[in-house]
Amino acid sequence: MLLCAVLIRDEELMNIKKQFSNYVAQHFGWQVNGKIATITLNRPEKKNPLTFESYAELRDLFRGLSCASDVKVVVITGAGGNFCSGGDVYEIIGPLTRMRMPELLEFTRMTGDLVKAMRACPQPIISAIDGICAGAGAMAALASDFRYGTPIAKTAFLFTRVGLAGCDMGACTLLPRVIGQGRASELLYTGRSMSADEGLAWGFFNALHASADVLSKAQAMAQMLADGPTFAHGMTKQLLHQEWNMSIDAAIEAEAEAQAICMQTNDFRRAYEAFLAKQRPVFEGD
Predict the structure, then answer these.
(1) For residue range 29-85, what is the model confidence (pLDDT) as tens digits?
(2) For residue 140, how many other CB atoms are within 10 A of its CB?
(3) pLDDT tens across 76-104, in order?
(4) Could you tell me the fold of the domain covering 2-226?
(5) Other C-beta atoms within 10 Å of 245: how many?
(6) What is the pTM of this model?
(7) How crowded is residue 236: how many other Cβ atoms within 10 Å of its Cβ?
(8) CATH T-level fold of 230-276
(9) Contact yes or no for 69/16 (Cβ under 8 A)
(10) Residues 6 or more apart from 203 whose CB is under 8 A from it?
């Protein structure tokens, strides 16, 4: 958002704000309520698989959200009692078997770009996961900042089940950091499903809720984040991502710089003034 503010005029920023408030998705559901956007993967008859088009649209949407001033938190869910079954067998996997290397590499880079875009956008992303969460769907969940599941959620990084390596879309770097190297190795080599209880115990899920409640619980967390110091949340996400590749000295310096920036925000002053007045601060994200 800082970069956007430097490179884009205020008038253009307002146009971007209107664009995302009124954005009409072509390949999934998109709804903005207040500061919270909800993406609904909505092909329930097939357990919400992704297509070439939905991959690309999701990637472009998350890239664009880096410059959005109206959306502060994103929730991802699936329709019909499932999250996402991965790439569509007929619309993606079948065509891939007929492609040559340049086309295949273009596709695999595009899918990885979706994860990059999710990690790079400043908004916290919360996945509400029910039922099947597999393949690319599991990676979209993994790329999120929070994951709420249900007792019947089954998460599978099933790439080896279709003769592929387990190293897809960043799985070999992201999953060990979330659940540990040994557990990640088992899931990525075998492609077996991780149960909801395992996911909770291993730190993949932040919490489990009933199927009827999981989306509302995710949106409640989204609302809490949206009501908070959203500029600072964006800084937190940026540092959580960037510090994976830093030494401890570099990380401490980066955090010192990040905090110094946040100390110049109006939200920091609001918090101080609210403390003096013995009131709860009302943050505005600036």
Answers:
(1) 999 999 999 999 999 999 999 999 999 999 999 999 998 989 999 999 999 999 999
(2) 28
(3) 999 999 999 999 988 998 999 999 999 99
(4) 2-enoyl-CoA Hydratase; Chain A, domain 1 (3.90.226)
(5) 8
(6) 0.91
(7) 17
(8) Lyase 2-enoyl-coa Hydratase; Chain  A, domain 2 (1.10.12)
(9) yes
(10) 178, 179
